[in-house]
Specification:
The chain has 144 residues and is an all-alpha fold. The protein has four helices and no strands. The C terminus is likely disordered.
Length: 144
């Protein structure tokens, strides 16, 4: 179970509030041990909706306030896209009744969210606060 911690804060209230909701949704997904593809699909849909809102807010803020680093913005957006693509694959498996992916799905979502919040989104918070070291961040390479 993930618990919100100050170390996840970006310093931007909109992003941080979205992240708090996302952590709660991830907890719902990772706590489920259901045998119902329909229920699990509902949890996956909640994750998709939560990240969709968070990603739109982050990408809007990056475009508005961090435009001097287009290559870094591109990498950040690519991380979002890769997450959505991978989540869609798991979602399709679940929709087809393959509940054997539940554990892998839970691990993937939890680990990705933690890495993204603690690295990429922390760096975004620095950019939004005016720290020019945004382009020095390291993106998790194992998500490609």
């Amino acid at each position: 179970m993930l618990l919100w911690d100050e170390t996840y804060e970006t310093g931007n209230i909109d992003i941080d509030e979205c992240h708090k909701i996302l952590i709660n949704v991830v907890n719902l997904l990772t706590a489920t041990h259901c045998s119902s593809p329909r229920r699990l699909s509902t949890y996956v849909a909640l994750v998709k909706d939560s990240v969709g809102i968070s990603f739109r807010i982050e990408e809007r803020l990056m475009a508005e306030r961090c435009s001097e680093h287009p290559e870094v913005i591109e990498e950040h957006v690519k991380e979002h896209e890769l997450f959505v693509e991978r989540l869609a694959i798991y979602d399709e498996d679940v929709a087809n009744g393959n509940l054997a992916v539940v554990e892998a799905l839970s691990i993937f979502v939890k680990q990705w969210v933690l890495r993204h919040l603690l690295s990429t989104d922390k760096a975004l918070g620095n950019c939004l606060a005016g720290d020019r070291h945004y382009c020095d961040i390291q993106f998790p390479g194992d998500l490609k």
